[in-house]
Amino acid sequence: MTYSRGGNMDRQFQHSMLPQATHDELARQNFVKSLKLHIVKNLSPGNKRVYEQVVKPQFEREHQRSPQNRHEIRTAMQRHPHYRWWSALRRINQEMLWDAVNTSVERQLPELIERAKQSDRQLGTLTLDPDFKIPVYQTAVDIHCMPGSYHSEYTADDLAAGATYDRGVYIYGAGWLGPLNDDMGLSIVNNYLKPKYPDFRPTKILDLGCSVGHSTLPYVDAYPEAEVYAIDIGAPMLRYAHARAEALGKRVHFSQQNAERTHFEAASFDLIVSHILLHEIPLPAIRNVMRECDRLLAPGGMTIHVEAPLYSHMDAFSAFMYDWETANNNEPFWSAMRELDLTAVMTEAGFAADRVIQTFVPNGAWKTAADNSQQGGGSRGSWFIVAATK
Fold first, then answer.
1. Which residues pair with 382 in a beta bridge?
2. Where are the beta strands (DSSP E) in 194-256?
3. How far apart are CA 335 and CA 316, in angstroms?
4. Which end of the chain is more exposed for a tag (fewer CB within 10 A), N or C?
5. CA torsion 389→184→264→197, rounded to 10°?
6. Neighbour-count burial of 337, counting CB atoms closer than 10 A to its CB (0-12 exposed, 13-18 middle, 19+ buried)
7. CA atoms within 13 A on the CB side of 292
8. DSSP letters along 47-89, please?
């Protein structure tokens, strides 16, 4: 028996590919979400207090100066029991998240696979490459502790990674990316592209590292005359992405390709986007992706890459807090990416320096006034983007 969802937590849009939780599974997922919120709201602020009141003064007594960077802060904070307790609890919560969702997905996997095959809509396409080689930097680690990461397959026509990611992202963020987990794409369209470039009419759009297409679909709605393509390395992600897009009535052409070097012809696209892709690949791959964007963009085209802020945008303590992901959440490229001069990377890739833009875009485009009232009001913050025109 599945549970009839209600309340703020379960306003995730119930498309036909989304795994459904039983009463007990949903209770477990809600506990994971509640623990996450407790950590964020009640325990995380204590790190700043113990740093200012205990750790920093102790460091200054020992070294006759203040900590100078996130590395020194981390070394000092690791000696304090509050940080060690907070860090352990956060890691446990992350592992519990995937366990809570995997139980539900595994129970329904045969049904989900059949549902994907039986989709009666043929709006877009799905192209998988049986000879595709997953990059070593992706097979070496389960990104953000998700078992099997984006690419692992355990049965024929497996799409478990996609189903797990779709539900897991919603629980991880307690719904702050919106009912369709699409805030990144939606906010770039509504809060950047449409107001800043009202006359921009791309005819071919490419989303790099699309995962299950959360951020791809807003571009389908925003530019209905455009052909929308989306690529990823993970076949189980793409199977789910295709079935999900069909279920939602969106035409997208998904294919299994590496964003470092695609099969598309040069100057094929007017708009190329990525959403939190860059921090999950190493620097050589980032450089290759930017060179590929330069190759694929048609004259007059635009590329936009969405990320969280760089370390240069924040103080040393905030950078230390962000740095937790690299050390403890299987995000090996997180910190290296946040130290980059992305304008330099893009100019090295071929873009003119005066056509590269780094800016912030308000998020929360999916929210209504009622949503803001229920969740404490207003946008959560902003997305950092690096963009360039050709």
1. 362
2. 204-208, 227-232, 253-256
3. 13
4. N
5. -30
6. buried
7. 21
8. HHHHIIIIIHHHHHHHHSS---SHHHHHHHHTTSHHHHHHHHH
- CA–CA dist 348, 177 (Å, integer): 33
pTM: 0.93
Can you tell me the distance from the alpha carbon of 113 to that of 236, in angstroms, rounded to the nearest whole number? 10
- Token representation of residue 158: 């497996």
pLDDT at position 278? 97
The amino acid sitting at 336 is A
Of 250, 373, 358, 267, which Cα lies nearest the Cα of 304? 358
Burial of 177 (C-beta count, 10 Å sphere; 0-12/13-18/19+):
buried
Cβ atoms 176, 28 nearer than 8 A: no
Nearest Cα to 321, choosing from 77, 88, 33? Answer: 77
Distance in angstroms (rounded) separating the CA atoms of residues 63 and 359? 37
Of 145, 56, 153, the residue nearest 97 (C-alpha) = 145
Inform me whether the pLDDT recorded for 24 exceeds 70.
Answer: yes
Instruction: Look up residue 53 and give its two tokens.
Output: 């009141």
Tokens of 80: 């304090």
Q: Does the CA dihedral 129-102-333-359 come out positive or negative?
A: positive
Identify which has the larger pLDDT, 199 or 368.
Answer: 199
Question: How is residue 11 written in tokens?
Answer: 């306003």
Spatial distance between the Cα atoms of 324 and 134, rounded to a whole number of angstroms: 26
Better pLDDT: 377 or 259: 259
For the chain, how many residues are written?
390
- How much of the chain, in percent, has pLDDT values that exceed 70? 94
Q: What is the pLDDT of residue 112?
A: 97
Residue 82 binned pLDDT confidence (cut-offs 50, 70, 90): very high
Given a contact cutoff of 8 angstroms between Cβ atoms, the answer to whether 228 and 219 are in contact is yes
Q: How far apart are CA 354 and CA 339, in angstroms?
A: 21
